[in-house]
Amino acid sequence: MTHNGSFDKDYFSTNTYENTSFAKYSMYWWSNRFNAILARGYGQHGSRLLEIGSGMGHLIGSLEAEFETVALDINPWALKQSRDVASQTNLNAGSAEQLPFADASFGVVIIKHVIEHLRDPELAISELGRILAPGGILILATPNLDSLLKPLKGDDWIGYQDPTHIALKPPAEWLSLLRSANLNPLKNFSDGFWDVPYIPIIPAMLQKLIFGSLGGLQAVLGTPFLPMKWGESIMVIARKNEN
User: Fold this and answer.
1) Distance, CA of 132 to CA of 155 (rounded, Å)
2) What is the DSSP secondary structure assignment for residue 154, as one 8-state letter?
3) Residue 184 belongs to what H/E stretch?
4) Is pLDDT of 3 > 50?
5) What pLDDT, on the 0 to 100 scale, is given for residue 7?
6) How many CA atoms lie within 13 Å of 172's alpha carbon, on the beta-carbon side?
7) Interval 125-139 mean pLDDT
8) Per-residue pLDDT for 17 more than 90?
């Protein structure tokens, strides 16, 4: 991926955020669907839900029927585009490192592939712990430095392709930071091997079937079961401790 290093219109115009007639079959669509299922399954319906890094608004918009939805993004252009798909959501411009919300004000927080872009991810995680209410749920995703197939990609690994990925850490370090913010990890899992090709001589479509099948099944079922090392991203569901 190449762009000017800022989260502007060009950044959101990549294939990752495609909005075409076949977007239903894109990884972006399936990722949003999976995260929405997790939010509905682990969060208390009717509670206040925040998505940090809401982008084009597709995920937060899909949760408006079950939650009181709030979105935060650093990019005013993306927030403007969100109005069509997240019309009932309270849209806010701001940074994950200085959240403009009161203590213990959310029952669910989703931060999907945002933390790796931050200059001070430790401060951001502390902020997550601050704004979550006791018993509240955090859903976090970030690139997985411990991915089993990462060595096959070398410098071409997906986590290295975005120059704004300035805070890549091993899963154990992320989990430690969450615990230090009074967040107790309930489920630690991965999203599957989708960064094909891994082996040059095998067609990419065949590799997608071979390596990506388990991640695809997890997304279809909406049930996390892949071990932490079996994918290109780590995903964590954590609960704010009661005390």
Assistant:
1) 37
2) G
3) strand 183-190
4) no
5) 57
6) 1
7) 98
8) no
Closest CA to 218 of 43, 58, 62, 27: 27
Nearest to 140 by CA among 72, 187, 75, 74: 187
CB within 8 A of 32, min separation 6: which ones? 58, 59, 62
Q: Give residue 8's pLDDT.
A: 57
pLDDT at residue 28, as a whole number: 86
- Residue of 23, 25, 24, 3 whose CA lies nearest to 12: 3
Return the percentage of the chain with pLDDT > 70, whole number: 90
Domains of the chain: 11-240 (3.40.50.150)
Please give the structure tokens belonging to residue 12. 């959101």
Name which of 197, 203, 205, 191 is nearest 235 in CA terms.
191
pLDDT in tens, 173-202: 999 999 999 999 999 999 999 999 999 999
Q: Tell me what pLDDT residue 12 has.
A: 57
What gap in Å lies between CA 168 and CA 154, rounded to an integer? 15
Query: What is d(CA 215, CA 194) in angstroms, rounded to the nearest whole number?
Result: 8
Q: How many residues does the chain have?
A: 243
Taking residue 126's Cβ as centre, other Cβ atoms within 10 Å add up to 16
- The order of strands in the sheet holding 233-240 is 90-93, 68-73, 48-52, 106-112, 132-143, 233-240, 183-190
